[in-house]
Amino acid sequence: MTIEYAIIAGGCFWCTEAVFKQIHGVESVESGYIGGHLPNPTYRQVCTGETGHAEAIRLGFDPEKISYGELLDISFATHDPTQLNRQGDDIGTQYRSAIFPLDEVQRAEAEAAIARAQAEHSSPIVTTIETGEWYPAEDYHQNYWEGDGQENRYCLAVIPPKLQKLRKRYANRTK
């Protein structure tokens, strides 16, 4: 099996991680930080909004089971790509909607996915295409929904509706 990688930011990484762990063909999901200027940032530093990093997820996926473009379409369907530097009550550049392609093929796919998403929204898509160095988040952020997230009021308010939206639109893609 060949594993490829995708890095996507769409708000709180706890929420995006919970969504993508449900997708057939996604073999790994790692929460982390990308797109900023500070090497090896901590969660506390990123939360200030001063490091320039986005909370993001790094997906390991099997391209025989799901394509990079499909992953991007799922991302657009499970967050609001028309909100600039926020997702709901999460406000700041660390919650921006962004795609971090790892090569020129992914860059072209990202541009195509943004165009597809724009066709579905009346408001402008604000998702950016960026580059940056990937930094894994601290261990306690990994698999958050499956652990502490089940007792976190924020997660309980935000994640189940995202999962419902995912299962409704992509039932054939979920585990």
Q: Would you spell out the secondary-structure blueprint of this structure?
A:
Blueprint: E1 4-10, H1 13-20, E2 26-34, H2 43-47, E3 54-61, H3 68-78, E4 86-87, E5 90-91, E6 97-99, H4 104-120, E7 128-129, E8 135-136, H5 153-169
Parallel strand pairs: 6-7
Antiparallel strand pairs: 1-3, 1-6, 2-3, 2-8, 4-5
Helix pairs in contact: 1-5, 3-4
Quick one: biggest sheet?
6 strands, mixed
Measure the end-to-end span. 19 Å
Using only C-alpha atoms, the radius of gyration works out to 15 Å
- Name of the CATH first level: Alpha Beta
SS strand fraction: 15-25%
Helix/strand order, N-terminal first? EHEHEHEEEHEEH
Please name the CATH architecture: 2-Layer Sandwich
CATH topology annotation: Peptide Methionine Sulfoxide Reductase, Chain A
Gross morphology: globular
The CATH superfamily name is: Peptide methionine sulphoxide reductase MsrA
Describe this structure in words.
The protein is of the alpha+beta class. It has a single domain, classed as Peptide methionine sulphoxide reductase MsrA (Peptide Methionine Sulfoxide Reductase, Chain A, 2-Layer Sandwich). It is 33% helix and 20% strand. It has a six-stranded mixed beta sheet with strand order 7-6-1-3-2-8, with helices on one face. It has a two-stranded antiparallel sheet with strand order 4-5. β4 (86-87) and β5 form a beta hairpin. α1 packs parallel to α5 and α3 packs parallel to α4. The longest helix is centred in the middle third of the chain and has 17 residues, at 104-120. The chain starts with a strand and ends in a 6-residue tail after the last helix. The mean pLDDT is 96.
